[in-house]
Amino acid sequence: MKQLQLIRQSLNLRQSLNLKSRPRLLAGIGAALVLAALISVALYLTLLDRGDQEAEPEAVAEVETAPSTPDLIGVTDERVLFGQSAAFSGPTQRLGIEMRRGVEAAFYEANANGGVKGLRIDLVSLDDAYEPEASLSNTQDLIEVEKVFALIGAVGTPTSRAAVPVADAAGVPYIAPFTGAEFLRDPKLEHIIHLRASYYQETEEMVERLTTDLGITRIGVMYQDDSFGRAGYSGVQEALDRRGMEVAAVGIYPRNTTAVKRGLLDLRRGDPEAVVLIGAYQPVASAIAWARHIGMNLVFIAISFTGGNELAQALGKDAEGVFVTQVVPLPTDSSHPAVSSYMSALSAYDSEAVPNFVSLEGYLAGRLAILGVEECAPRVTRECFMDAIRGAEAIDIDGFSLSFGDDSQGSDTVFLTMISKDGSYHSIKTLPPEALEDSGR
Q: Between the N and C ends of the chain, which has fewer C-beta atoms within 10 Å?
């Protein structure tokens, strides 16, 4: 409870200081106090983010739910306002930009057709640069200053880890974050809605394919040294445990950097046959390129957070033969009704936009939010919205099926893809034998 109290005290201090209504001297003092409070939160989050994986579920699960907020915050007779904190700057910015593009395409589509039962759906987005402290501050601003109805399309595990306790305590829906972390699927978190499959499901599929299709027995892991990376690493460990195996080698790197060389050297000492990559597109691309440069021609398989399209672009000529698990279909497969709808909406919203795994996930998140609003309009309350989604036996978004049942996660589906020589993605069911041949094994 001390963690949550620290967050609340720091943020309540900032909220209580109305700097605009005080003399300049007091405003300066107030600003200094705010800065000190936010620094304390930043230091706490940094230390927490370095803690072991076992402590993470407990830290989230201890959150107490504050008294419910008024029913119609973020809702008027004309519109419903959603908020987003995501990376729009820094080395992970393409994920935030594409996530926002997809959500806005869905909202644009609905608004162009007269809104949702006459209500316009709007989005306000703030940049957190994929840093937990900024995400926490943005979340407080979106709730207390912008007064949004709900939060949608957050990008990342460490950022969501910082924001979720604030949103949950305020009773604000937290919809479709771009993360598969297991500890964010704690049933005690009552206001979170996950669209995608979890990292445990993705890593299980990775290990199953590597061991069954290719007969690989030595699997290494390269991961980002924070709660996201540890969540993925834990998933690989559990998948290997079920098969009586152990991780062959481990390499780590700091978040928001491409400092991967030391981690690669650690991996090479373990002599793995394949490497599972848990990271964002730039460091993952750097790791693969450097590995191939120094003769580590392994089987590489990356988790969906790499962004798909962004990874292929960052890799360039080194992209061929890299495997990536995805949580949505191919964004160019117009034979899938949901993808067809997405492509039409994306083109109408931005005629120059290129279909992308991340913006497709954002579009589906937007469609899910629209469905919740539609079920409750004209009186759209947070309670009704949550019940409409999490209480539904089945939800169909143009063939993309969701089922929440007793948990907060709608989809359990993992898609396997491979990058071709031209940088395009192709759906596959199994890993081809030539993957081992190409690696030199």
A: N
